[in-house]
Write a structure and sequence with these properties.
Number of helices: 2
Radius of gyration: 24 Å
Low-confidence stretches: 1-51
Structural class: mainly beta
Helix content: under 10%
Mean pLDDT: 82
Distance between the termini: 62 Å
Strand content: 35-45%
């Protein structure tokens, strides 16, 4: 275990203090070290004005247990071990960006209790900047075991980075206090969030009202023009959202924020709502839903996702100044929805959808079970209601019985419903039996 929060310069050098490594790891020597560290840290906190440096804690148990003393600067449960929960509690308790090493193993959350923000029960609340580094998504696994979501990231100035970790079996449900409307099954983030070489799989969200939901990830940090959610080499798979309200984002839901997804796979996520669009309901964005924010999808795959109503793979909506979607070098395939099987894009006419060097294939529309709809939906591959540019794109083998098996561009209606498309070096292939190729205005 390494404790690395320094307060005073090293004597005679003018340099900041160095990290402290405890003596031999016998329990007796460890307890002596802990007691000495508590007194030392308390005294220094009272007398020093230098900025705090980072704690570096290595978790050494898979048991879920709270920290014994948040005032001592030492990650230690009553059993003398450093649990994941205890390490996070210590990181929250001391100001400054911290680092947690999470070795290979399955870390199952087992302390029930939703609706608190101190990481004492239920999910792991992160309230200060933190980097969590695992051994890889196949080796380091955090399993919420259905007791709550996995992470709740709180605070506009917090930066949370996750590297080499799988996040599974989170279950978000609505609570009254603190306010929690049941979004973000794996992660709910209201801070800067970065995931690298990780997985967010098999999580669920059950929102209590109209919302961007996020079965895997929910992210909202209003900051126009700034990317506050980043995914690089991340898998978001088999996450679900079910609700009686209008909901968005089976895999990922992003609201009023910028998101950049690179070299990642968003697959087999679903979102369902029993409320019909005519009743103010519906479900949007089986894989990803982005509202009033920017979405950059680079060298990634969005496949096998489904939404009951709009945007099986991707759904974007927005009139705000940051409402832009760019797709480059990516594949959108095998997704289903009532309208816009692959992509559903709706937003201000002053904002654009740009797709470059990508493939949109084998997506389809279908009438939702129990919806009462009789007219089939449009836009098997793409349904767009704002200016759209496709450059070096292949659109093939998509189906929509309502028309526009490949592309449906909606030119009618309000200022948010004035689509048009420009195609350059683009292949559009379809059959009449599959709704033809293009519909609307291209």
């Amino acid at each position: 275990m390494l404790y690395c929060r320094s307060f005073l310069p090293t004597a005679g050098t003018g340099e900041r203090g160095r990290c402290l490594t405890p003596p031999a790891r016998s329990m007796q020597s460890y307890n002596k070290f802990k007691s000495a560290t508590r007194a030392w840290a308390s005294a220094l906190l009272l007398t020093c004005a230098l900025p705090a440096q980072a704690f570096v804690n290595t978790v050494d148990t898979t048991t879920d247990a709270v920290d014994a003393d948040l005032n001592d600067g030492v990650c230690a449960t009553t059993a003398g071990t450093c649990s994941l929960r205890a390490a996070i509690q210590q990181a929250n308790a001391w100001p400054g960006a911290d680092f947690i090493v999470l070795p290979a193993g399955t870390y199952t959350l087992s302390i029930p209790g939703r609706g608190e923000d101190a990481a004492t029960t239920g999910d792991l609340d992160v309230t200060d900047s933190l980097t969590l580094s695992g051994a890889g998504p196949n080796l380091t696994i955090i399993d919420a075991n259905g007791i709550d979501r996995v992470f709740d990231v709180i605070g506009n100035n917090t930066r949370f980075e996750i590297i080499g970790v799988s996040i599974i079996h989170g279950a978000a449900a609505a609570q009254g206090s603190p306010a929690d409307n049941g979004v973000g099954g794996g992660i709910r983030s209201q801070s800067q969030l970065i995931l690298r070489n990780s997985a967010v799989n098999n999580n669920s969200a059950s929102p209590s009202g109209l919302s961007y939901a996020g079965g895997g990830i929910y992210h909202s940090l209003p900051n126009v023009g700034v990317t506050t959610l980043q995914l690089d080499h991340v898998t978001v798979d088999h996450n679900t959202v079910n609700s009686t309200f209008a909901v968005n984002g089976g895999g990922i839901a992003v609201l009023n924020s910028g998101v950049r997804i690179e070299r990642s796979t968003i697959s087999n996520n679903t979102i369902e709502s029993s409320a019909l669009p005519a009743q103010g309901g519906g479900s949007y964005g089986g894989g990803i839903a982005a509202g009033d924010g920017s979405l950059d999808l680079i060298d990634s795959t969005v496949s096998g996702n489904s939404a009951g109503f709009f945007g099986g793979g991707l759904s974007t909506f927005g009139a705000g100044p940051g409402s832009i979607m760019n797709i480059q070098g990516s594949t959108i395939s095998g997704n289903t929805a009532y309208r816009g099987g692959g992509i559903y894009d709706d937003g201000s006419i002053s904002r654009t959808l740009t797709i470059v060097n990508s493939t949109i294939s084998s997506n389809s529309t279908q009438i939702p079970t129990g919806s009462g709809f009789t007219a089939p939906g449009e836009g098997g591959g793409l349904f767009a209601s704002r200016p759209t540019s496709l450059i070096n794109v292949t659109i093939a083998d998509n189906k929509a019985a309502g028309g526009g098996g490949a592309i449906w561009i909606d030119p009618q209606g309000t200022s948010q419903n004035q689509g048009r498309a420009q195609l350059l070096n683009t292949i559009v292939q379809g059959a009449a039996a599959d709704g033809g190729t293009c519909g609307g205005l291209v």
